## 1
Amino acid sequence: MRILLTEDDPQLGRATQIGLEQNGYAVDWVTSAEHARTAARLHDYGCVLLDLGLPDQDGMQVLAGLRDTGYQGAVLVVTARDHIRQRIAGLDAGADDFIIKPFDLDELAARIRSASRRAAGRLREQLVHGNLVLDIADRHVTQAGQTVTLTMKEFLILQMLVEQAGRVLSREQLEKNLYSWGDEVESNAVQVHIHHLRRKLGRELIRTVHAVGYCIDKPAAP
């Protein structure tokens, strides 16, 4: 999943970006409300981590603007403000959750998963597709009860394809959710990951739609 992080503290912003990237997320980090609005307009984010104390505009205004322009992903407010009225106002404006600074990165990652799950309409941290089971929290995959070892990028591609089973996802769509700004991406990176997934899970699982992209078909009705 690709995350937009807004944080004007350089030390905290960089530490948060590195920590989330180590958890497998692609993280674009901005330091102002203006840059946050521009990034949200140009890219499709699964989650926005929003600092309220931005230098050019209060984060609450950014939150309202995101929802007014139709952003449907999760918004997690990350703030040093610990007043109940501000939390209520944030939730009413469209925030999915709050986390108070300083925070633990493992807790932040868990809250991101929870907020993103609710935004996507999932009730559990698990995706099931036929005999394939994906545990989102642990990044663990089983097929017919047997553990399948995947790299982080392989898991994320599989998760995207299973979540949108029946829909064809282009290479560009997959890349945008796998890589942050500035990442060097080989032109055949997604193709290589798909090849490894087919080798581990069976060639029939992921279908190539010529000149369009890749698809996992919906399971057959019982």
## 2
Amino acid sequence: MVRVLLTIGTTHRPATDLGYLLVKHPDRVHEFDLPTGRAFVCFPEADEARCTAALVLEVAAPDRSATPDGFTLGRFVNDRPYAASSLLAAALNKTFRTAMLGTSKDRPELAATAIPLEIRIPVLRCRGGADLADRLFAPLGWVVTATAIPLDVEHPEWGRSSYVDLALSGTLRLADALHQLYVLLPVLDDAKHYWVSTDEVDKLVRAGEGWLAGHPERELIVSRYLAHRRSLSEPALERLAESDDRVVTDSVDAASPEDADEDAPSLAVVRREAVLRALRESGAQRVLDLGCGPGALLVSLLEDRRYTELVGVDVASRALAVAARRLRLDRPGAISERDRQRVRLIQSALTYRDARLAGYDAAVLMEVIEHVDEARLPDLVRAVFGAARPATVIVTTPNAEYNARYPSLAAGAMRHADHRFEWTRSQFGDWADSVALAHGYSVTVAAVGVVDAAVGAPTQMAVFNTTGVGE
């Protein structure tokens, strides 16, 4: 019988701790019954220096005695017994369910720690080829080696097949790696072996927590995972967009996790409310949301009639498409014509001068500057404070000192995979003062979120003002 195979290896010492994380003894073969066949977990190597777990999936043949409604030949003739697909993702969820929770009774600290991992899937159906595999896994921190498998090794002129030999190496939490595989295997397969219902949205959001919201291929992943059903993908994208700028534990706004109020609003909400207050105090009516992303702030601004013109700006067309859906600009009649005329979306890079952005009352850079290389920040400053020159500029950014209060963040780690830097309070204050002095603004720096006596608040905000609105 042909078997589908996936291996997970580590060189963490002692490497045999992988057995504790997977809740599988390396000296045994573990067998699981699945609706589609059987799965086995074994350890082809297990010593102090290196340990590898193998998941082997045997796909059962369909019942040929019954002719189902809507009979298709594909039910009986397919590549499921031979290539990794959504069946392997389901087997992962069954065999490593405890490991996917990110907990370990015997090694609790290790379960929360990033360790060196090597994952190999020798035959993976990949509709999009090796390039797509790299686009999906590389942004998550993996070193990707995806080798296209030829249709026939004896006839190379026939070209490549739709299968790749995939190898991943990286330093991640095991639970994070398993969740990524659980989502991305059926995405690469671009098919599922079961009916996709509304429950799949919840599964996707849960499995994608902490990595999917900020993934550059987020829309493709969501669309494929949910079988290209727009009725499912739109709400999924909206839920992911809401968490796009959240850190792993940003719903914990208290000084320590033990004292956290579970009913407190998330940091994303607290931050947005702080920005909205600053805008109201400025008296602005025409506002730029620079780096608007999926449009969470624009939605709140559109609800307030004091703002007569709103412009969302982002370099990513995908983010603007999500923002358009959230604002319901993509559906005729979904909002009033008056509101439709109040808001528009522009694709533009904030490090270049853009004449379309000049002359506005206020501009917001909410959790934006940390996504720009520090070497390019002077270009952004010249484009925003020099060329566009709104009367008020509001900037928020993470406080790097507060990261020590997030237990899921390793020492020195940043809150988002795409952050190029995160500043301390003194670094941000010095930058704000220098920008204000160079471009004729006054500036006030404030804390956003619950203030810790030792490390400050999770977010810091600077409000820059010229002498009056509209100058």
## 3
Amino acid sequence: MLQYALIFLIVAIVAGVLGFGGIAGASAGIAKILFFLFLLFLVISLVMHLVRGRA
């Protein structure tokens, strides 16, 4: 998922440089959502790992 976030970030940067503001904004928004989902899943995974380790 982090890979997709980075891809959308690169697309946003390239689109911004080329002057495609709408595409750049949409790609940046998608990259932000994917990044925060990645962080959420990472935290959930770490908590589950800690819970299983103590049981």
## 4
Amino acid sequence: MIDLDFDKQGGLVPAIAQDARSGEILMLAYMNENAWHKTLETGEAHYWSRSRHSLWHKGESSGHVQHVKSIRVDCDSDTIVLLVEQVGGAACHMGYRSCFYRELKDGTVSECSPKIFDPSEVYK
């Protein structure tokens, strides 16, 4: 078992969710020790919501859960990458496939990730 270093960053470690098949970066969130253990226990991504100050099972409201296929831990044991199968197609609470749906290129901002759902319909 890998022991993560939760002490360096106030009890949280950054967790990058990446599509296991395509390699697309879907989102960045944070895990505390409880979220880490729930993720290992269930095989689905759990995070710590910094805004709500609570454990968050990804997809609990939208149904767009993340099935964890593999976990990579960096050399300092303080950042992880979750290789996931994104159920429902959208990782972003704004309804996009990826939270990184905006691209700045040549001074112009454009959307580079498809919008999958309308958040006002999903999060009533």
